[in-house]
């Protein structure tokens, strides 16, 4: 209902309204779901469904979004300095395809504003991660990422290094091993140095679904060697499957939603088979039902995130996924969600 109403507005104003409404979400008694508890690199989560990066870029609404039922919210992508992003139009609904294309280009208010908002939060209430990027005109991207870690290591519950947005020229080049290894090494050291006592926020890397298998394998090796904690699989795709029907299908940018489900889940499964439990995996891309969330979990994800599904299904989607997950665990004879993690892999990683 709400999702349909908001879709009467152009995409960006609709997003602004959704954020404003989320901030007003009233506190609701949360039903405990002991079978669905999970953890991500040591971070305890009440259930596996989180909100993906890009929805609350400026950390304005995470408290309300947690009240809507998400187990965790990833704010950002945030860059050191505020920047306007690309000129509009830059967000397109592909309604016929249950998809979006965006080329927002990291529009955000910058690290100071986001840090100030995170500093005021009640840490007892839900898990908030921060997704870190670089300014479009940055002369030194490594320094940008480092600044993000330094500013937010004490304020966020986990950190994500975003080297996979298709909308900042050159950013995806940081996925190449010769660049990625020093980057992740430096960021892991900065995280260790800046974290408060007893609180070391897990450091994850968000990857594109468009890597060829060799590049993906090399990236996983670097992630394992540099001892980061996990991978977020995946960001939006620059591919345009021939099945797309919407008039907006040729817009430049990253495609998300239904058409991303199959390729992002295939990437997750490959990465899970390579890492076999040594990295925490967060599954993202095209989740709009319990079945799809469950497929990501069976493919090796300890938790999942969604964005486009919220646009088409509205906030009731989270509860429907959780109810459905409990039914699917019953159907397959799993006592707990943790038992289903990686069940589709040849060597389950439990
Ligand atoms: C409008 C929009 C903005 C996004 N902005 C970001 C971002 O700033 N940083 C990021 O890591 N991912 C961003 N994403 C990607 C999502 O976090 C997610 O990886 C992707 O949309 C796939 O999930 P979905 O199919 O559930 O939407 C954005 C996605 C959309 C649709």
What structural keywords apply?
350 residues; alpha/beta; TIM Barrel; eight-stranded parallel beta barrel; three-stranded antiparallel sheet; 12 helices; 13 strands; 37% helix; 16% strand; globular; binds flavin mononucleotide
Poorly predicted spans: none
Largest sheet: 8 strands, parallel, barrel
Average residue-wise pLDDT: 94
**How many distinct folded domains?**
1
Separation of termini?
38 Å
Percentage of residues in DSSP E strands? 15-25%
Which structural class best describes the helix and strand composition? alpha/beta
Ligands in the structure? flavin mononucleotide
Give a verbal description of the structure.
The chain has one domain: Aldolase class I (TIM Barrel). Helix 5 (141-152) runs parallel beside helix 6 (177-194), helix 6 (177-194) runs parallel beside helix 7 and helix 7 (213-225) packs across helix 8 (258-275). The longest helix is centred in the middle third of the chain and has 18 residues, at 177-194. It has helices at 2-6, 11-23, 62-67, 111-119, 141-152, 177-194, 213-225, 258-275, 290-298, 308-313, 316-332, 337-340; strands at 38-40, 43-45, 49-51, 72-78, 91-94, 99-102, 127-132, 158-162, 203-207, 230-233, 254-257, 280-284, 303-306. Strand 1 and strand 2 form a beta hairpin. With 350 residues, it is of the alpha/beta class. It has 12 helices and 13 strands. The strands form 3 sheets. Strands 3-4-7-8-9-10-12-13 form an 8-stranded parallel beta barrel, surrounded by 5 helices. The chain has a 3-stranded antiparallel beta sheet with strand order 5-6-11. Strands 1-2 form a two-stranded antiparallel sheet. The protein is globular, with a radius of gyration of 18 Å. The structure holds flavin mononucleotide. The site of flavin mononucleotide has 27 residues, from strand 4, strand 6, strand 11 and helix 10. Residues 52-54, 57, 76-77, 91, 100, 102, 104, 131, 162, 165, 206, 235-236, 256-257, 260, 284-287, 306-309 line the site of flavin mononucleotide (FMN).
